[in-house]
Amino acid sequence: MASVSIKNVWKYYGKTEAVRDLNLECRDGEFLCILGPSGCGKSSTLRMLAGLEHISAGDILFGEKRVNDLPPKDRDIAMVFENYALYPHKTVYDNIANSLRLRGMDKAEIDQKVKKAATLLEIGALLDRKPVELSGGQKQRTAIGRAIVREPELFLFDEPIAHLDAKLRAHMRGELKLMQRELGTTMIYVTHDQLEALSMADRIAVMHEGVLQQFGTPEEIYRHPVNEWVGGFIGEPPMNFLDCQLEDDSGALTLRHPEFQLSIDGEQASAIRGKANGGAPSAVKLGVRPDEIGISHEPGDQAIKAKVLVTEPLGGDMLVDASVGDTKLLVKTKPTFKADMGDDCYLTFDRTGWHVFAGDSGLAYF
Ligand SMILES: Nc1ncnc2c1ncn2[C@@H]1O[C@H](COP(=O)(O)OP(=O)(O)O)[C@@H](O)[C@H]1O
Ligand SMILES: [Mg+2]
Fold first, then answer.
1. Residue 210 above 90 pLDDT?
2. What is the pLDDT of residue 275?
3. What is the pLDDT of residues 236-275, one digit of tens each?
4. Domains in the chain, start-ordered, CATH in brackets?
5. Whose CA is nearest to atom 25 of ligand 1?
6. Contact 345, 290 (CB under 8 A)
7. What is the per-residue pLDDT for 279?
8. Residue 19: nearest ligand to its CA?
9. Could you give the angle at the alpha carbon of 221 between the alpha carbons of 169 and 52, nearest 5°?
10. Could you give the percent of the chain with pLDDT greater than 90?
11. Mutate to test the pocket of ligand 1, among 13, 79, 83 (most ligand atoms within 8 A of CB)
12. Three-state SS for 318?
């Protein structure tokens, strides 16, 4: 029953357009992440789903039922926010049990549910503590426990682990995913952290300035970004972009950069011909991820001459800042690559992973 449809939904705050004509379908049992930078409309979307914010236009459906005018308490949802707002004077146990007591559930049943949630979240030993005696991660688990025991049809989580330290965040990603799989409850999870979205979601909705950019599996979003913005937002370190001219000389497609030229063939050439304006030369951006660039001290077939600016050893990886003419590129390689500032090097791009975006619209040809 807990599929969710967002149909042509808009949100205005006075003249501020926070969400623009959003369409999203979340399947029953799915873990859906809404991902985007601060201010892109994620929380507004979640709050409209929760019934905490009026919908300016459009419809929200839970299953077949239109819920636009349904008050939050009748929506069968449980929310977890970044500032989890536990009752400070209540124990962990009482914080988790609170909503069940309000419902008039009997004591034994409450006890069983609280203990089950506490076991799942590994806070069974902390049930007698007050929030001041808990770490950030333990508080967050308590807030999640409070949501779980309600056994809602739908979880709405808004950046629930954003303030935890990096190590705990990485740990919680795995736990939250496991918890959602075990419970089978539909989850709509808001985050600005692409790693959270990529690692946990069944599907990701990427938003930017109130507009849905792309909706797909983590792999689709990472491998096939629909536009330059998504390509640049997803992936760490970020995708490199090179300004090029695309030329179609009697059958062969060529990417021309002041420092190099590369041919494009096969399906990639067809993809461009299918979309581009009749083969006229046009400005494009070539997008290549740092780990899809090979780097060598020796020239080679189709290799592009570059200069090493600086190397950044990162334990198991090495980042190399290089320049091709005026363009700076980041290359991710192995620490066995040794170089000094100013050294010549040669770069090769992995053609299966690269992307060409139209210069004007930013839309991906492939
Ligand atoms: N209550 C509000 N009143 C006025 N503007 C708001 C309000 N809430 C959010 N906004 C604006 O709407 C836009 C989207 O905000 P929000 O949905 O909170 O984004 P996100 O959660 O992605 O950071 C932002 O420009 C924000 O300043
Ligand atoms: Mg927000």
1. yes
2. 79
3. 999 999 999 999 877 789 999 999 999 998 899 988 888 7
4. 4-233 (3.40.50.300), 240-358 (2.40.50.140)
5. 39
6. no
7. 55
8. 1
9. 60
10. 87
11. 13
12. strand
Identify the residue whose C-alpha is closest to ligand 1 atom 5.
13
Given CA atoms 118, 119, 123, 125 in this order, what sign does their dihedral have?
positive
State the Cα–Cα distance between residues 83 and 353, nearest whole angstrom: 39
Look up the pTM and report it.
Answer: 0.95
Which residue matches tokens 């636009």?
Answer: 68
Chain-centre distance for alpha carbon 360: 25
Cα angle at 339 between 338 and 343, to 5 degrees? 155
Q: Is 12 in the pocket of ligand 1 (CB under 6 A)?
A: no
- Structure tokens given for 218: 């983590």
CA 180 to chain CA centroid, Å, is: 17
- Site of tokens 């839970």: 62
Q: Which atom of ligand 1 is nearest to the CA of 43?
A: 21
Q: From ligand 2's centre to the CA of 78, what distance in Å?
A: 17
d(C-alpha 121, C-alpha 115), whole Å: 10
Which of 216, 81, 239 lies closest to 160, judged by CA?
81
pLDDT tens-place string over residues 41-87: 999 999 999 999 999 999 999 999 999 999 999 999 999 988 778 99
13 lines ligand 1 (CB under 6 A): yes
| Closest by CA position to 239, among listed 263, 262, 254, 222 | 222
Q: Which residue has the higher pLDDT, 136 or 30?
A: 30
